[in-house]
Amino acid sequence: MHDRGRPEPRYPGYDVLTKRQGPSWNEQTRRVVSQRLAVPAEPRFFTPDEFRTVASVAARIVPQPDGRPPVPVAALIDEKLFRGASDGYRPEGMPREREAWRQGLQALDAEAKAAYGAAFHAIGAARQDGLLARMQSGDMTSPAWGRMSPQDFFKRRMARDVVLAYYAHPTAWSEIGWGGPASPRGYVRLDFDERDPWEAAEAGSGDAVEVRRINRHVG
Amino acid sequence: MSDNPQHTPRARRGRAPDVFRPGGWVPMREYGEDETVDFAIVGTGAGGGTLACKLAEYGFSVVAFDAGPYFRPLEDFASDESEQTKLYWTDDRIVDGANPLQLGSNNSGKAVGGSTVHFAMVSLRFRPEWFKSRSLLGYGADWPLDWREMWNYYREVEQALKIAGPVNYPWGPPRPRYPYRAHPLNAAARVLAKGCEALGIGWTETPLATLSAPRGLAHPCVYRGFCVAGCSTNAKQSALVTWIPRALAAGAEIRDLAMVGRVEVDAAGRATGVHFHRDGTWHFQRARHVVVAGYAIETPRLLLNSTNGQFPDGLANSSGLVGENLMAQSNQAVWGLMDQEIRSYKGPPSLAITEHWNYEDKGKDFFGGYSYMSQGPLPQLWANTQMAARGLWGARLMSDMQNYNHVAGLKIVGEMLPQENNRVTLADEVDQFGLRIPRVTYSWCDNDKRLIAHALKFMTQALEEADARDIWTQEDDTCHLNGTARMGSDPARSVVNADCRSWDIPNLWICDGSVFPTVGGANPSLTIQAIACRTADRIRDLAGRGELDQPARRRYAAQTAQ
Ligand SMILES: Cc1cc2nc3c(=O)[nH]c(=O)nc-3n(C[C@H](O)[C@H](O)[C@H](O)COP(=O)(O)OP(=O)(O)OC[C@H]3O[C@@H](n4cnc5c(N)ncnc54)[C@H](O)[C@@H]3O)c2cc1C
Ligand code: SF4
Question: Which residues on chain B are in Cβ contact (under 8 Å) with A29?
Answer without folding.
Answer: 78-80
